[in-house]
Amino acid sequence: MILTSIINIVYIVRRSLATHVIDNRTQTFLNSLEENATIKTSKKTISKTDQHFERTYKTFLHSFVETYVSTTQNRTITLNYCPPVPPNLQGSLVVNNVPDNFSIATNSSYYPNVELGGHYHPTTCLARHKIAIIVPYRDRLDILKHFLYHTHQIVQRQQLDYRIYVCEQAYNKTFNKGIVMNGCFKEILKLQPDTPCFIMHDVDLLLIDDRNMYTCPIFPRHLSVAIDKFHFYLPYTQLVGGVLAMRREHYVLVNGYSTNYWGWGGEDDDMYARIVNKNLKVERPPASVARYKMLKHTHQKLNPSRMKVLRTAHIRIDSDGVNNVKYTLLNTTLYHLYTHFLIDVGEEPK
Ligand code: BGC
């Protein structure tokens, strides 16, 4: 009887496993069960299992496997939080060239831990912060490649639960960063509604000190304080362009970015006006840490009327932004190292 039971356990477990995703520990455990059973059964010929017996044990084993799997999963859930200060930060960093065999179109062997769509979370501890990195983009493939190659390793060392979203403006129309950011923000919330923290990140900026944490403190935080192009000095105190971290509720409170800036510049200055108008402060990490290298590229067409539009920033806050942004999402593609949104911003008003 005992012998028959063991054989049945093994048989039914194997069958029920076909419909379960079992982790390695469970598999090892089940293998050892099977080995024990084999040793015992080799001495005697086994009679055929009757239907009733199989049904009874199937029910029993099903619940056993469920319990075992959920116990092992719960064990993952009860991981400790990652330390407040990530232990493997390196501080000041050198920017390396992108290896020739690094591709962003196919699976990258450089980042085996990154899941499809550019998502990563630490597996040895529970991330303290979940973030979405929004990268507005158009037509700079080499720069994007460098950005992804460089940035993934840093945010992994920061032990964040992160996902990189590349938000590309479609067609050869005047760039409108505000619409691209707002559209991207909305699309991210459709995919990942619980995302609490957004890092708006220019694609041409590479962080060169990993102590500059990509997290969202209680106020919006301007992260790109010291850029090599500006000799590592903040050009003016109202600047929030480059890299900006904002909680979801703050982004909604300020109504996201203005959609009225066509061409390069201005939308970030408008964002500053929104932040202070809603009684938020802009905080900054020390310039000794918030350091960036700007990659060289050809610049977008400057928006000559940006200063004029900026003059009306305070009166447009609630009527021009993420609450009424118009765009068309043409495509969503999950690449290994990023989620790609292709966004049509429509026509620039004449
Ligand atoms: C533009 C901003 C830009 C800043 C720094 C300003 O003139 O309006 O959009 O971030 O210069 O380059």
From TrEMBL:
E.C. designation(s): 2.4.1.-
GO MF annotation list: galactosyltransferase activity; N-acetyl-beta-glucosaminyl-derivative 4-beta-N-acetylgalactosaminyltransferase activity
Location (main, coarse): membrane
GO cellular component term of the entry, any: membrane
InterPro entries per the UniProt record, alphabetical: Galactosyl_T, Galactosyl_T_C, Galactosyl_T_N, Nucleotide-diphossugar_trans
Gene3D superfamilies listed in its UniProt record: Spore Coat Polysaccharide Biosynthesis Protein SpsA, Chain A
Keywords attached to this entry: Glycoprotein, Glycosyltransferase, Membrane, Signal-anchor, Transferase, Transmembrane, Transmembrane helix
Membrane topology: Single-pass type II membrane protein
EC main group: transferase
Domain Galactosyltransferase C-terminal: 221-298
Keyword Transmembrane helix on entry: yes
Claim: Cell division is one of the keywords in the record: no
Cited function: Catalyses the transfer of galactose onto proteins or lipids.
Homology family: Belongs to the glycosyltransferase 7 family.
Protein name: Beta-1,4-galactosyltransferase
Organism: Adineta ricciae (Rotifer)
